[in-house]
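name: query_chain
kind: protein
chains: 1
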Amino acid sequence: MPPIATAALHLLLSRPSLTAAQLRQVHAQLIISSLLSDPFFPNSLLRSLLPASPHRALRLFPRLRRIIHTNPFFPNSYTFSFLLTASASASLHPPTPPPPHVSTLVSSLHALAVVLALDAHAYVSNGLIHAYSSCALLSSARRVFHLNASCRDVCSWTSLLTAYARAARLHDARHLFDEMPDKTTVAYGAMLSAYVGAGSFADAVDVFRDMLRARVRPNRAAVLGVLAACGALGALEQGRWVHAMVSGPSAGAMASDGMVATALIDMYGKCGSLETARQVFDGMPARDVFAYTAMITALSDHGRCAEAIELFGRMQEDGVRPNEVTLICVLSACGRAGMVERAREIFGSMAAAYGMEPGVEHFGSMVDALGRAGMVEEALELVRNMPMRPDSYVMGALLNACVALGGEEVAARVAELGILERSSGAQVQLSNLYAGRGKWEEVVSVRRGMEERELVKVPGCSMVEVDGVAWEFLAGDRSHESWIMDVAAHLHKHLRSTIQ
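structure:
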């Protein structure tokens, strides 16, 4: 490229603002360099800035329009495709200082596309749906989707479905998903991930089954989602089936995918199959912080705390740097194993050894470790000196210790801190503590306060897998089939007679 053209482009792209005289100078330099003789030069220039510099692309467009107002090929449908992609990216990654609101810019580009009769082009229509969705303007995205029905394609459906899924609008997402004439891998993955994000794990597994029945090959997102759902449901047999699918000869790159292996470790750990989880972990060619954290968590959650702490040491020997979640899991393991000094050592060295300040979750794990060791006063002092406001998890850990040790006075001081008022679980703990000590007036006071603040205890839940199907049971739920309720009543009667 001639030096004069390089200088013109540098001025055009680097300055946050340009005067009319500077724009005329750039125009003249581009004419001399013959760049303007190429009708595709403006679009090529915009495309060269994506995806790295979306804000520069958006800033460049109005300058190019003022300079190249005689080019019949600019702007065209490709121009809007580039600009709308830049707008979607800019809405997710705003610079400092932030520019004018991106949603206003998207509306302006939409209006210009209508004026130029380009809004019904497939590239432009899909770009508008994606850009409006990225700005959380789902009603505008839906309007474009309906108005341009003649140019809808797979991208149109998938863009809007993904937007609904990300916004947790499950009803709208499912309705659109059911209407889709051709469901793609991305569409199935988006619907499945939406269910997992909303805690509707059984529905997520059903979507995965439908995906396989439709002979749509699952991608990584779908596999990760269904493994998370299997882990949450305790659906071990279904999880094993997914494992066999991603390990078979037709699995391709997924068989050696580190994220899939980590999801398998997490699933097996939550389903209680620790030996299989360890086999997957040991079989990984390379283990990152997420794989180590998943395995440490599985061991700690099932009481194998010494192994979890030992694995943490191996992690450090391998040069893998722990993250915040890793340290939460290790602190919890130390607490369950009664290794208070080790927990103190890790907690106290977080800033120096790992470059991170303890967060509220780390304080909660440390409080739990102290409480389990009977050091309730020290735990209370740690809570009082926290640099941030303790949450219900921290206070719940402190109350657990009080309940275990009968520390009614400490529990009263905890209640005086005012943090417990927003937590139904902590209020129930406090009530149980008073009940265990025969303080019935205090029990009534706590329960009345819960009613006044409209706090409802989350019902207990249990799951069992029978013939590959996960059944969920909530405390007080009477909606199951009659034979299930008969079995439950028989078990209840049998347990009562055994206790008596």
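note: The CA atoms of residues 164 and 171 lie 9 Å apart.
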